[in-house]
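Input record, target 12 of the design panel.
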């Protein structure tokens, strides 16, 4: 088998194409529905203990009950209370996990569209920290959560036969108009608060910018991890899950969007395959130079990033500005490599 699969989901299936995860500990954020739900299902079936990140205990317990009904084999699924609407809450969720576990092998972070309501539409909302709610959920909280867990991920990578991976859900949206602006920058809080009122779909423009942030973060994280020269390198992999039918009801035209997505978009289960490939396929560990820090599309295909996504200067700027703005909020994160 070669080092890359084709674009067809039929070439990959998690039942046969992910490794045994017995004894491994995993976190999947946004796991009570959609892509996250199916990601958890297959990781648990491979033997992992999976923490389902969700804000609502009732929804998390309902999802876990359904997962058990669907069948999770020898795996285990546990709720981790998680609310990304505030970076402080995201850090608290990570700290709660650190009190419960002594290892973390796979971290798969996704994001919702806007704040707790998980809406793709709606006016620009600025939080009390002076940053848009969308940027807080999709970028800042993901950044805090990952960085807080990084010392444990590094510790786990020093264990025998370790295979630690960080999978960050980005989107092909990062290749659309606004994220491709050559003059884009991330220097101040206001750079995350553009309304784009004159765009045909301002909500999408704002969302797409956060997906560029996810990609820049994942790639900068890989560079910083590489600089540590870990004996068993940690792989940071940003992905586009594909066009998945998960948000028709969050658009201004739910009936039309639902009909179109039902025909042209993937169902959530195959929509989870790229996350599963990045997080648990043995191919990724066998060919780390091919996949680490690379943007993957369905399934296992190394995609083409936008020119802005390739910019190390922009990634570094985003990293430094995010840290500074978090400090202004009173949120500190560990230095990369600090255990």
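The sequence produced for target 12 reads:
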């Amino acid at each position: 088998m070669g080092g890359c699969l084709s674009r067809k989901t039929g070439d990959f299936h998690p039942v046969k194409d992910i490794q045994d995860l017995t004894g491994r500990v995993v976190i999947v954020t946004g796991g009570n529905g959609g892509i996250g739900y199916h990601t958890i299902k297959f990781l648990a079936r491979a033997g992992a203990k999976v923490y389902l990140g969700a804000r609502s205990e009732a929804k998390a317990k309902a999802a876990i009950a359904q997962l058990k009904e669907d069948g999770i084999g020898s795996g285990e699924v546990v709720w981790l209370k998680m609310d990304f609407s505030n970076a402080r809450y995201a850090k608290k969720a990570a700290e709660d996990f650190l009190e419960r576990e002594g290892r973390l092998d796979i971290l798969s972070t996704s994001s919702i569209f806007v704040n707790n309501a998980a809406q793709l539409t709606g006016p620009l909302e600025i939080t009390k920290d002076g940053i848009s709610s969308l940027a807080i959920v999709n970028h800042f909280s993901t950044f805090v959560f990952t960085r807080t867990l990084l010392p444990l991920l590094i510790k786990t990578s020093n264990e025998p036969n370790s295979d630690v991976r960080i999978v960050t859900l980005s989107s092909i949206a990062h290749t659309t108009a606004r994220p491709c602006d050559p003059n884009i920058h991330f220097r101040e809080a206001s750079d995350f608060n553009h309304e784009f009122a004159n765009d045909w779909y301002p909500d999408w423009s704002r969302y797409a910018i956060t997906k560029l942030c996810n990609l820049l973060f994942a790639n900068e994280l890989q560079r910083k991890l590489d600089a540590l020269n870990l004996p068993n390198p940690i792989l940071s992999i940003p992905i586009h899950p594909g066009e998945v039918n998960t948000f028709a009801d969050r658009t201004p035209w739910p009936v039309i969007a639902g009909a179109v997505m039902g025909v042209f978009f993937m169902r959530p289960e195959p929509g989870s395959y790229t996350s599963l490939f990045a997080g648990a396929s043995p191919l990724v560990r066998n060919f780390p130079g091919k996949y680490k820090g690379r943007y993957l599309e369905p399934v296992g295909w190394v995609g083409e990033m936008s020119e802005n996504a390739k910019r190390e200067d922009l990634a570094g700027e985003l990293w430094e500005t995010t840290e500074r703005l978090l400090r202004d909020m009173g949120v500190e994160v560990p230095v990369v490599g600090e255990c």
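The mean pLDDT is 86.
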